[in-house]
Design a protein that fits this description.
The protein folds into 2 domains: 6-213, Alpha-Beta Complex (Spore Coat Polysaccharide Biosynthesis Protein SpsA, Chain A); 225-316, no CATH class. Helix content is 42%, strand content 17%. It is built from 13 helices and 9 strands. The chain has helices spanning 20-28, 48-58, 74-84, 106-116, 164-176, 178-181, 187-197, 225-237, 240-251, 258-263, 268-275, 285-300, 309-316; strands at residues 6-13, 34-41, 62-64, 92-96, 101-102, 121-129, 135-138, 161-163, 202-213. Strands 1, 2, 3, 4, 5, 6, 7, 8 and 9 form a 9-stranded mixed β-sheet that branches. Helix 9 packs parallel to helix 13 and helix 11 packs antiparallel against helix 12. The radius of gyration is 19 Å and the shape is globular. The protein starts with 5 loop residues before the first strand and ends with a helix.
């Protein structure tokens, strides 16, 4: 019998008791892999901790981490998982949300793609689905460009699979910059930036490997429609997005790169310079155009960029 790849699946949970059973069952029944599911629960009010404890007591492949501090967001919960779960004995590290449904061969396929493309990390498209029955393929598999990792993730983090070649130095860097890391809002964006900035190879698969549940409590969810577009513009205009770009650039060590230095101040001229580099900063053609427009609009109405507090405070420490 061939040796099955050993995978640690890191699952962050918060008030997810309505969806966890379906999610965990879809992970437990993955084909052709040997896995352990590690769960970290952000203190919840709906019985999530109790349900996870019962699940761990019933299934040896499910491990519930001790109750920790209040995280206040999925990113900090995932960072806790990376910090506290030992990767010793595993070949790969995967991430899981609490409310999706994985294809039965998701991990088997992910490992096969990672190996056949000779890459260090993997992500894929997903199929969003709504209670109404509506479904939509979320396509994130456009060709990677030179600096996309500073401005977007490689798709939903719940599709990520990393070799130990990436996971071990990622954990080491996180522990070195733990306090500043807590101001990062999106763990999948940071992880992709770390991998690409270190020269690791990443494959974004056009195949959908899971059903991506949409509901009123999604922290991020599917970016579709006018409402989502307006929300994304507001996050740029209020300084949150640019503050995250700068924080991630600082944490992964590319702040001193000449390209980054040229626009770091985010004044009028810097924004105009960044706009003409849109083709180097986003993958999708539509997003390149929007990136260009946003930089021009912000340059035209320029005032000292107001950046979200936590990220900028972290940079100043």
């Amino acid at each position: 019998m061939p040796v099955k790849p050993r995978i640690a699946v890191l699952l962050a949970a918060y008030n997810g008791v309505h969806w966890l059973e379906e999610q965990i069952e879809s992970i437990r029944h993955q084909t052709a892999v040997d896995l352990t599911i590690y769960i970290s629960v952000d203190p919840s009010s709906d019985g999530t901790e109790q349900w996870c404890a019962a699940c761990a007591a019933e299934h040896t492949e499910v491990v519930l981490l001790p109750v920790s501090e209040k995280f206040g967001g999925a990113a900090r919960n995932f960072f806790r998982l990376i910090r506290d779960v030992s990767f010793e004995g595993y070949d790969y590290i995967a991430f899981s949300d609490q409310d999706d449904i994985w294809d039965t061969n998701k991990l088997e396929h992910s490992v096969r793609m990672l190996q056949s493309h000779d890459v260090d990390a993997y992500s894929s498209n997903v199929t969003a689905f709504w209670p109404s029955g509506k479904t939509l393929l979320l396509d994130k598999a456009q060709p990677q460009v030179e600096w996309d990792y500073l401005f977007e993730a490689a798709g939903p983090g719940c599709t990520y699979l990393m070799s130990r070649k990436v996971a071990d130095p990622l954990k080491a860097l996180m522990l070195q910059s733990w306090e500043k890391l807590q101001s990062v809002s999106l763990h999948d964006w940071y992880i992709y930036a770390f991998a690409r900035s270190r020269g690791f190879k990443w494959f974004i698969d056009p195949r959908s490997t899971l059903r991506y549940r949409q509901h009123e409590r999604n922290q991020v969810g599917a970016n579709t429609g006018i409402k989502s577009l307006v929300s994304r513009y507001k996050s740029i205009n209020n300084g949150w997005w640019f503050s995250q770009v700068k924080l991630i650039a600082f944490l992964v060590g590319v702040k001193v790169h000449p390209f980054v230095c040229r626009w770091w101040a985010l004044g009028r001229l810097e924004l105009l310079l960044l706009s003409i580099n849109a083709w180097r900063c986003r993958r999708r053609v539509r997003d390149k155009f929007l990136f260009f427009c946003v930089c021009w609009i912000n340059a035209a109405i320029w005032q000292p960029v107001h950046c979200a507090g936590d990220a900028i405070t972290a940079l100043k420490k």
